[in-house]
Design goal:
With about 325 residues, this protein is mostly helical. The chain is about 75% helix and about 5% strand. α1 packs antiparallel against α2 (about 60-85), α1 (about 20-50) packs parallel to α10 and α3 (about 95-130) packs parallel to α8 (about 195-225). It is globular. It starts with 10 loop residues before the first strand and ends with a helix. The relative contact order is 0.14.
């Protein structure tokens, strides 16, 4: 290969939704801005309520606080830049900016997969082994599990991002996406990427499929235990403690698996953008709504917090 013909790429152009009419892009900007605001406020509210109310100082809500903080961070990596591409004609992102966005996308994405698996394990112990639950899921164990979930994003983000941006980019710099995801960026590389693609598939299996299988196995055991419970009240109470998590897992993993496990020939760039919108923008907004509307303990804690807040103002 003639190295002298290479063009140094200093920035990338995010195609985003530039093919849409300007009026529709403005409507999308307003819609995504509203979703971003709801996501931020909803997850902050979950963090504040579960921290302020002593009744929610349990392992399940400790992990929920971690999930809410992770969702805020994950959203901040993607949405602000996407909003700017909808509002202005300048849709470029620097080489370093693209690498940074990709790094934290991988970091928070892998951490969320592992944290959702940790939350499933917590529900498994609570329902299938309730007598030993306080011993198994003590404070130290919860901190270690949460820390391991967060740390899991570090190796995949470091390896994948550094490997991708060590490849040569020979001139084409249009990323056909609304953020720097690996498939549209790797498509711009002018070198053999087969070894990287094998590593990327392995990482996808380890950090998406493997946690999903752990969650699936946990819920098979959980449902088996629930169905063997003698009382209908016990079944309803047990199922209510894990139904919110099950809905969140279904939403997140269904779109992530469709995005990263479908053959390239079967997925158009536009369809992939729609799927990516769901797990990067919509799901983080739905999580606090699902956990607050479907969880009686969170709703009761929210009412208590609001009463205390308004009562203090009156005094």
């Amino acid at each position: 290969m003639d190295w002298g013909n290479w063009t140094i790429v200093n920035e990338f152009v995010l195609v985003s939704f530039s093919a849409l009419p300007a009026e529709l892009q403005i409507l999308l900007f307003l819609l995504f801005l509203f979703i971003y605001f709801v996501t931020f406020m909803g997850n902050v509210l979950i963090i504040l309520v579960t921290t302020a109310d002593s009744a929610l100082h349990s392992p399940m809500y400790f992990f929920l606080r971690n999930l809410s903080f992770l969702e805020i961070s994950f959203n901040m990596v993607i949405v602000p830049k996407m909003l700017s591409t909808l509002l202005t004609e300048k849709t470029t992102i620097s080489f370093i900016g693209c690498a940074t966005q990709m790094y934290f996308f991988f970091f928070f994405g892998a951490a969320e997969c592992c944290l959702l698996a940790t939350m499933a394990y917590d529900r498994y112990v609570a329902i299938c082994n309730p007598l030993r639950y306080p011993v198994i899921m003590d404070q130290q164990a919860c901190v270690q599990l949460a820390a391991a979930s967060w740390f899991s994003g570090f190796p995949v983000a470091t390896v994948q991002t550094s490997w991708i941006f060590s490849f040569p980019f020979c001139g084409p710099n249009k990323v056909n996406h609304f953020f720097c995801d690996s498939p549209p960026v790797i498509a711009l590389v002018c070198a053999d990427t087969s070894l990287f693609e094998l590593e990327a598939l392995t990482a996808t299996i380890l950090f998406i499929l493997f946690p999903f299988l752990l969650i699936l196995g946990s819920y098979v055991r959980i449902l088996s235990t629930i169905f063997r419970m003698p009382s209908a009240e016990g079944k309803q109470k047990a199922f209510s403690t894990c139904s919110s998590h099950l809905v969140v897992v279904s939403l997140f993993y269904s779109t992530a698996i469709l995005t990263y496990f479908r053959p390239r020939s079967n997925t158009s760039p536009e369809n992939k953008k729609l799927l990516s919108l769901f797990y990067t923008v919509v799901t983080p907004m739905l999580n606090p709504i699902i956990y607050s509307l479907r969880n009686s303990e969170v709703k009761a804690a929210l009412h208590r917090t609001l009463r205390r807040a308004f009562g203090a103002q009156k005094l």
